[in-house]
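Dear colleague,

Following up on Tuesday's group meeting, I ran the structure prediction for the two-component complex that the binding team flagged. I've pasted the input sequences exactly as they went in, so you can double-check that nothing got truncated or mislabelled along the way. The structure tokens for the whole assembly follow below. Feel free to forward this to whoever is handling the docking comparison.

Inputs:
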Amino acid sequence: MRGCNIIIVLLLCLLFCGSLVYGEGFTVARVKYNGGGDWYSNPSSLGNLLEYISQNTNIVCQKEPAVVEAGSKEIYNYPYLYLNGHGRVFFSEAEAQNLREYLLAGGFLHCDDNYGMDKYIRSELKKVFPREELVEIPFNHPIYSCHFRFPNGPPKIHEHDGLPAQGLGVIKDGRLMVYYTYQSDLGDGWEDLEVHNDPPEKRVAALKMGTNIVVYSMTN
Amino acid sequence: MDVNSSDIYDSIAGRLGVLRNRWKSLRAGMNIALGLGILFAGYAAAALLEQFLWAPVWGRMMMAGVVVLFTALLLIKGGYYLLSIIINKRSPDDVVTAGWVGGSIPKIRDRLRNAVQLWREKTKGRADYSVRLRDEALREAASEFLDADISGVVSRVSFYGGVKFFIVSAFLSILVIFAFARGGAYRVIHPLTVFEKPLPFAIFVEPGDTTLVEGDSLFLTARAQGGSPKEVCFHLLSLYDGDESEDLRIALMGRDSTYTLEIAGVSSGLRYKASSGRVESPVYRVEVKKPPLVRKLRVKLIPPGYSGFPAMALADNVGDILALPGTKAEFSIEARGEISEGYINLENDDGGEGRVELEVDGSELRGGMRIMDSGRYRIRLRDREGLMNRYPIQYYIDILPDLSPMVEIVQPGVDLELSGIGGLKLLIEGEDDFGLNRMELYYRRTSSFLSDTSGEFQRAGLGFHQDVDGVFRSDYLWELAELDLIPGDLVEYYAFAADNDDVLGPKTARSRTYILRLPTMAEMYEEMEQAETEGLEKLEEALEKSREIHEEVEKAIDEIRRKGELNWSQKRDLSEKIQSHEEVLEKLEESKAALEEIMERAEDSSLLSLELLEKYNELQNLISEIASPELMKALQQMSEALEGADPDKLRQAAEMFQISQEKMLENIERSLQILKQLKLERQLEELAERAAEMAERQEEITEEIAESEADEISESALKEEILEDDMKDWLEKLEEAERLASELDSISALELEELESAADSIPGEMEEMTGSMLNNQRQSAQKQGGQISKKLSQLSSELGEIKQSMISRKKEELAGEMMSVVRDLVTLSREQEWLKKESSTLSPRSARFREGAAFQAGIAEGLESVTNRLFELSQQTFFITPAIGRSLGNAAAMMQNALNGYTARNPQVVTSQQNTAMKSANQAAVQILDAISQMQSSASSTGFSELMEKLQQMANQQAGLNQETQSMMMPIPGEGGMSMEQMAAMGRLAAQQRALQRAMEEAAQQAEELGGVLGDLGDIGQKMGEAADSLEDRNIGERTLKLQERILSRMLDAQRSVRTQRISKQRRSRAGRDIVRPSPSEIPHDELEEMMRQDILRAMKEGYALDYQRLIRDYFRALYEGREP
């Protein structure tokens, strides 16, 4: 099993490198899930994040993200998966299994609550990792400092319930595999400026945190 | 011989002697002249030679010797001739002399010589000749000679030549002497003196000895006179004789045959000379004077007081200044040398100049200036010799701009529709680099229905403070009541801030202007109604879509049953229909979103009662549950089966899907019905509220009539007109409610109809009142106003009653129906029991199996009928929970199993299944009775708030229990056991915990029935049981305390306010405010401890009431104080 995982990781790396060489740069993938929730929300967010990463790191990114289904093997083509929405998320057993294997093999899933997804995603992540808990990530974790510094944890982009922004995660064998931003709404911060008219510093903070998450996903 | 001959001869000899002496004289003279001439000529020649040849000493000696020798020789010869004359030497002899005569006097010729010669012969005794002959010759010669003119006998030519030679020589030598008096002429006459040959040319150097100021350049120019060497070498020497070091610099010939050398930045004195080959200039001295300079500069900056910056000393010799305007700069300078004057030259960036004098004390200077503009400055020094410092450093002054502040209204931070005229909480944030002096709120009422009342902005001062993050914040509760707003009014407002710059004057900023609007109640309800309508539409669309899918799946199942499989096209169509299930889910989400909007608006405006809000919330949960996990699973299986090739699998998956789909359809229908009911309730509430609000407004208008001036009454009349319009709108709403009520509750519809009749006249009365006011009939208007407001209040109250009675009636009906269901269930259960008893006596071969099966089928049919009735009832209340449905479903399934048992002629199976069916039916009956009881005792028909209240009470009790338990921590062994009293107290605590456990288990079940909305309460009950066990065993320790703490935490955690979590999910895209907080702890190893801590933290974060927070903190603190560090 371990050998398989290693092979899968190597394949991931190869695919990733291949995508860089042949696919005009790095990209991320948006997870399309069932359940009725708006998996497609914040349409301009990931494109803007990719652009920001290109400009502020030495990662050459494509302009647009991909879309993958939770149960599809295509997810292995992307080291970073993004899942967001305002409503119900549902994973079938097969999809949960697929995600689990992907994450154990080195993949990374970023769940971002746009407000309303919280109760669903927590229970659905339990399907993916029944024995693991979502724990709050301490501020000295590398995800908060691997490229830009966030000494106070994830930035709070939009007001939800008046609670502080939290970064929660599933950690296995010391590796953060799933990162869940709650009461933060990074995706809104990545949107085109005119969508929410956020203060520029909020938008930049969101993009910077997104950069950190992507960089972390690629380097760990 | 005779005497005469001798005389003659003597005469001749005497004359010859004269001639001889004359010749000797001339010869002496000539020799002397020659000698002197040679001397002079020789001297001149030697001088000439010497002039050009620069003979050495021996050369000159030789030349002098030669000249002197020849001169001496000639002079000696001349002296000989003179001496010969003096000594009368007869030389040349007479013969020769006579020869001269004969030679010069032709007539004498040789006779005289012969004569003389003859004489001499005689005298010598030679007598070859006769005497006579001698004498005769002699006489003859004498006769000619003695009378002859002998002046020409001796030629003077030589003498004259000699003299000429002498004269010419002398002249030439005089010329030469004059020409070369300092040169060869001089050197020749000093043959022993060594003379250096003169140099071919001379070098003259400028500036010669000079004085420079340190740092100046030294320009040396050499000119060659008498020559043009290719290059000149400048020798730079130390000023000190003992120092032999030399620095050579070559300078090539330049223009005008000059040779130049520049030595830049001469810092110390030196000597120098120029040379070219043997030619050298003299050595010159260059003295260097040292001008004053700044040895050390210290600058101290004292910022203006408002900045709060401390004074700062720049590093030594750092003069560049970056400072705020108004900063005082103090200079302290150590200079080289004694200074007589010092000042600072200033240049501003805008071209202005200035000068700041410095106080001088020897070589130290002090001074200061206030910095107001950017620019540059240099320090100038003058020493006592008048020298200025060279190349003073230019320092820069940069002004640190005091930026304008920023201010923004963070909360609400958006244009807002007010829900009431109460206090509006504003959170204003300002930032400034150095501090704010004031923050103010500017506002004005801009419009109303009455007139455009845009006027001056009013101002309110804001208290503010600075937080640790440097941001200035003002929490201001703005009492909007002071603005005297009426519905429809707009208020513009913005925040203003001024910084504390007291140097250049405060800079100001203002925020964006926001607008508050006080919507009319009608508008607020209208918005809710729109959302409600949308919710209904979405549910209906979802229902329709679901039905389509249901039909399609039904067709597919039929097709598979008939033909055994589906063809490709059919599969594709079915697959597309299944995929479109996503649309159903989307519609459901949209309907939920619509309900969310209603709740948001209701929450904002407090227009709806808590009960109604709970119902909307419950409906939302119900809709959430429609797409159950079973349905999703069935959908997934259906999709997978469609992709597969197994028709049986497809059929099974389709059938499973149908079952789930049917349930979903039922739930959607149920939701629709409930929403309609809620809509009616909401409409009744709205009508009541609006009537009350209109009554208030009518009272205000009536009061205004008494107090207003003549010109103000028209304003009141306008308000009355607006009120009249609102009343007409209200009547329309009443009609709508009537129509809906006629569908759902006929009695309410009748009551509303009656109400409408009573209310119909009010608009007319309002119109009359308006007329009275305009006609200034105040009393009449006031009376009318009083009547109208009374009627409106009456309407409001009646509507409330109609709503309440509708709800009560509904509850009664429901309760009655549910009781009927219970009775039927009990009957069925009894029948089942009887059948069970009968069946228990059957043998496998008994013929009564068929009969029994028929009875069983009848009971099952009865159960189905009861279930259907219950389902219909469930559309009207939340109290009919899924648990009841499960119990009935279980009973039905057991009955089916029993039927199968009959078919299989297996009495054991039959009886056991019948037993279980009976129990399930009984359970369902009990559950329904519970539901009836809860519904009747609850103010709401959902039971949710009752559950919440129950949990709160239980949490209170648990908190108290925790404290008491802690106070009874087990005493340390050896220090005495527990007293009787303590044991009794512990027993009491155990009983309390046990009772709480039972209550929690009930609450858990109730919460489960309400859709699991409060999390897993069953787990809490279990933990309570463990704690109770420990207490009963009189064995409490830290584990028990931890357990109890966790219990309380979970209770508080689960006890989330519906408002804060569910109803108040206000989705606003507004920028969040970062909350600085400590980092979460490291991922813990002690999971239990961490979970407890997290729970407590979570509980505290959820914003619980202060007393709960205090309880939690106290408990936690007590817990930790008791622990080992």
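Confidence is low (pLDDT under 50) at residues 1056-1068, 1085-1094, 1103-1107, 1116-1125 of chain B.

Cheers,
M.
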